[in-house]
Amino acid sequence: MSVCNDLHAEHSTAWSQAVSHPFLEACRDGTLDLKAFDTWLVQDYLFVLEFARFMALAITKAPYRHFHTLLGGIIALEDELSWFQGCLGTRGINLEEEAAKAPCQEYIDYMHSCNDQPYPIHVTVLWAIEKAYHEAWHAHQPPQPNQAPYDYATERWASEPFSKYVKELQAVADDALASATRDERTAARAAFINVCRLERDFWAMAYET
């Protein structure tokens, strides 16, 4: 039994809206405006900075058997932040002049609010965020490599290593939810739905001026 699979199935419409968006389609076919991509790139970098803190706090609640997966995720985030900084530097974007837009800040605030939640809820949010990114980019990858100018983003989150990590993280979340109380499972379901909504709004933010 997988509680995570159940959440995915029960809320398929919300999930589809989280992982499908014109932004991703335009990335795939190379028609996305460079300004929209830069907006997304900056905001995602700011989000990942806070996501690293969110993941680190999950370890303070986790049983030792989950450490390997969670620590591996944190190590990968160091490389991811360096990747963002390299991309933004190449594009001449000064991060000191950038601030989180409303949808990004709302997502960050919600994520931080989950820091005070029991571990099963915290790790469900963690899994949902990572799975949404992998599925969104994997579903919208171009049919052939190097077809569009944004392939380097697709290749990162649609990769097999990231897919493997997301599967391991789901196993961790399922393990935590297996021993969760009824109230915790109810809260985890609400959290999953919130992540779906926030992911949907994050893609749309790329078109804000």
TrEMBL record:
Cellular component per GO, a single term: cytosol
InterPro entries listed in its UniProt record: Haem_Oase-like_multi-hlx, TenA_E, Thiaminase-2/PQQC, Thiamine_Salvage_TenA
Domain Thiaminase-2/PQQC: 8-208
GO biological process, one term: thiamine metabolic process
Ranges annotated as spanning the membrane: none
Pfam families: TENA_THI-4
Protein name: Seed maturation protein PM36
Coiled coil: none
Lineage: superkingdom: Eukaryota
Active site: 199 (proton donor)
Residues annotated to bind substrate: 44, 80, 130
